[in-house]
Design goal:
Helices cover 43% and strands 18% of the residues.
Length: 392
Amino acid sequence: MKIVDLCEFYSSRGGGVRSYLTRMAHAASAAGHEFVVVAPGARDEETNGPDGRVLHYAGPKMPYDATYHAPLRIDRMRELVERERPDVLQVSSPFLPAWVAARMADVPVRAYVHHSDPIGCYLRPFAERHLPSALREPLLAPAWSWLRRVTRSMDVTVTAGAWLRDSLRAHGCERVETVPFGIVHESFGPERCSEVVRAQLLGRYRDDPDARVLMVTGRLAVDKRQHLLLEAARELARERPIALLVVGDGPERERLQRQSASLAQVTFLPFVHDRAEYAAMLASVDLLLHASRCETFGFVIAETLCSGTPVVVPDAGASPHMVSQACAEVYPADATPARIATAVRRVLALDREQVRRAAVAEAQRHPSVAQHFGELFALYEGLLGKRARHAA
């Protein structure tokens, strides 16, 4: 089976979609399938390396984050897909790539993977902040209409969780299925906690038994709302020694560094590609702070729980569906930094060993990466078989 992914949000720096597609390339190779990514980039080029085979076509830099490029070359998208002749055309964007895919006549199977939630991430928060309740749904109606058109043009729409499948179906989207996303369980665990790593992160507070390490990680961008978390950390630092670890990169990095300058102990690191080093950090901090309200699946949340570390998350997107009260605190998505700080206090007051056991148990609900892609490939093969029988 040959799968071509028609992608949009494929950053040269990394990110959720790129990480997912890299894992998919490895899983496809292990299963004997061919996998190709078609994505906008700085220039027309083909690469074949650890991320699999990637066909870039030139696109202008995105204005907010220049590591992303705009997928404006409809002609090149069509040309590359026609050249590759996929059995399955997988679409990772509901915008121009989906529009192009819907008009590719000779593709046996089309699949849309709902990686991002632009309605829940941007439109709904805007409507709730600026419009009276009577006008909110009319504002969202065109967006839902477009998403319904996208799902109608596909043979299947794949979501990471049942909650998201049910939401799309409730708005009239068709042929929506859940293939639960997974993590590499064996790469994470409480046993990876390192006193050396913890001491490094505590810095000046390493000898203070009351000190705690809070972690923030991910793409540093406005939609991830890390500025709220840093304000919460500053409030907590007035009460007890707080060491803050921020892992990631993005257009908001410098602004967040300035915002955290008043903290006595803060560490900023770029994306950590050494998985053993990253796992040691997750297991060595006291909790993870998360603020994105539009995750379709929080990989970092699942990996943190697998590490035995509690999380503090908003009640929006995938986050509240991935945790339990025994190992997490869920705060309102519109909460102030003071409210987030209160959630942190509650988690820090819990018995650490009980929290560790509860977090590990909660993480077991999520499948492995191998299980996820095995189920996804089986879904695609079933659709191909159905198409072949129909043609016969």
